Amino acid sequence: MSIDIFWRLPTHGEPASHRSKTPNRWDLFPGYEGQHPGDSATGYSYVDYLAEIAHAAEISGFQGGLIPSFPMTDEPWVISSVLARETKTFRFMIPFQPGFLHPVVAARMTASLQRATGGRALYNIITGGGGPQQLWWGDTVAHDDRYARTTEFLDVVRGIWRGGPFTLKGKFYDVKDAGLPDPLSREEFPEIYFSGSSDAALASASKHADFYLTWLEPFAQLKEKFSRVREKTAALGRRIKCAVRVDIVARATEEEAWEEIRRGFESLDRQTVENFTGGPQAGTESIGAKRQAANRPKTINSYKDLIIEPNVWSGFALLRGGQTQGLVGSYEQVAERLDQLVALGTDAFILASTPHLEEAYRVGEEVLPLVRGQHLSVNPERVPNPSRDGAHPAKPAGSPRDLAAAG
């Protein structure tokens, strides 16, 4: 069995390290009005920066990358189209919420992108966690109905992909004799990574998803979640794989990794930390966010209070927003934890670290070659392989990561 490894593109902008929230790369970042790549007289833009990260991921052996979609980001469909001509093998994991795009239009867009890129598009289906952000999109559909809409949406996309004629008169969509024209109908249907932790989400994922995607959680909780979704899928006569989205801080030694976390934590103001102990965003219906918040301590005086398992830190959202739990440790320790997740039933990873450019090289050079539990779906000529090369090779002077850092 092979394990798929993806990276992430920071379409929301990012700081230069975990040690500070002050970004100096890209202008799309909440509350930031400073210098960004587009200001340069050289004409270097944020798209060039994202292209550098995508190139780094290709060189380092990642199959592709998740392109986040939030109210403060560019549109992932557009970014994917732009970067398609900048890359050769990079696969674009495009997150979107069914309901904001008609399924017939989505199918045509996706098949066209598949045709143009040689089949490099993937879906990350996000049904939405409710609350203020859901209203930002203009979506007032109730939680369980959103997942019913997602199921119906994917029924239509799959139905018309085969060329039609496809007809469905459902609760949310009314389609008659629809179908993709040849040659679009001959393109490969994109793999579906499906997010959501509620029973309604698991029911929808069981019908359509190729990969059930979850944030990192305490390992015992993940094992239980994987079992639930696989049981629901098996009842439909299908098999589903499981994927984990996880941030990491990996360094040559465990002490160096935790020092990075300590410095980032101690740069925070007290109010930010106190707000973090209060739980997820008010009004959210996201079960995943609530599960993440449940693992936070009620009192936080040190970064150490957020260590919930060996090498698992539950404070990443304090440093850069997004998910809470991630892995911290030496290269060997992080690889061990990834191996343990594989043993629990993980079939794919979406990894990330800040800054994404330099860290794509670091993780590709130093961590991925040490993950020994299963065969990784990476190019063996791009990533050092200890079993092939003997002892873990020393990083040569002038390696891509050094050059990126120097730039």
Task: Briefly summarize what is shown.
It contains 15 helices and 16 strands. The protein is α/β, with parallel strands linked by helices and 407 residues long. Strands 1-4-5-6-9-10-11-15 form an eight-stranded parallel β-barrel, surrounded by eight helices. A two-stranded antiparallel sheet has the order 2-3.
Task: Summarize the structure in words.
By secondary structure, this protein is α/β, with parallel strands linked by helices. It has a domain at 2-96 and 191-257 and 322-406: TIM Barrel, CATH 3.20.20.30. Helices cover 39% and strands 18% of the residues. The chain is built from 15 helices and 16 strands. The protein has helices at residues 46-60, 76-84, 103-117, 131-136, 143-161, 199-208, 219-235, 254-266, 270-276, 287-293, 316-320, 331-344, 356-367, 386-389, 400-406; strands spanning 2-8, 14-15, 23-25, 64-66, 91-96, 121-125, 166-169, 174-178, 192-195, 211-215, 241-251, 307-309, 312-313, 326-330, 348-352, 375-376. Helix 1 (46-60) packs parallel to helix 13, helix 6 (199-208) packs across helix 7 and helix 13 runs antiparallel to helix 15. Residues 379-400 and 402-407 have low confidence and may be disordered.
